[in-house]
């Protein structure tokens, strides 16, 4: 067994992934399974470390450190989303029917808000990263680096 280990930003918890997801508390030395019905293929911590996002064949989900699991109805893969710096929302950049969609998904209300985006043909976003103030989105599309100003939706 060779699990994938992902440290939380504060170093208090390690997500251990080997088909099933486990959370290991570094201080109490307790290992807890996260009850998810599908096999987990990838994980990413929120910047605040209070949430862990995961990918299954069915889509995205989120768990808190206490094990509360929530399905995220985004229609995006883990590589197409990025948490905001405060950990309260996800920014998703998806493409459906050759039309790009930029969405801010609130993690408290589980509501999505579309953000302005110019028409960009054949956009297939991956590897999303946000700038420090959450107004610049960096991503790759077809292997090329791209930058998107989120506040005004202008694509460069």
Would you give an account of this structure?
The chain has 156 residues and is mainly beta. It contains no helices and 15 strands. The strands form 4 sheets. It has a 4-stranded antiparallel beta sheet, with no helix packed on it. It has a 4-stranded antiparallel beta sheet with strand order 5-6-7-8, with no helix packed on it. The protein has a 4-stranded antiparallel beta sheet with strand order 9-10-11-12, with no helix packed on it. The chain is globular, with a radius of gyration of 16 Å. The N and C termini lie far apart (44 Å).
**Coarse structural class:** mainly beta
Shape: globular
Mean pLDDT: 83
Low-pLDDT ranges: 152-156
Distance between the termini: 44 Å
Helix proportion: under 10%
């Amino acid at each position: 067994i060779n699990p994938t280990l992902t440290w939380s930003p504060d170093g208090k918890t390690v997500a251990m992934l080997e088909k099933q997801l486990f959370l290991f508390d570094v201080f109490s030395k307790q290992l807890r399974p996260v009850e998810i019905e599908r096999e987990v293929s990838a994980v990413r911590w929120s910047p605040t470390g209070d949430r862990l996002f995961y990918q299954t064949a069915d889509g995205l989900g989120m768990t808190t450190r206490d094990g509360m699991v929530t399905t995220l109805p985004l229609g995006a893969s883990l590589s197409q989303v990025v948490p905001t710096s405060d950990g309260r929302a996800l920014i998703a950049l998806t493409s459906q029917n050759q039309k790009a969609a930029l969405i801010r998904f609130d993690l408290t209300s589980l509501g999505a808000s579309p953000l302005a985006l110019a028409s960009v043909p054949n956009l297939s976003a991956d590897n999303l990263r946000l700038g420090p103030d959450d107004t610049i989105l960096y991503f790759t599309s077809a292997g090329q680096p791209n930058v998107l100003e989120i506040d005004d939706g202008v694509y460069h």
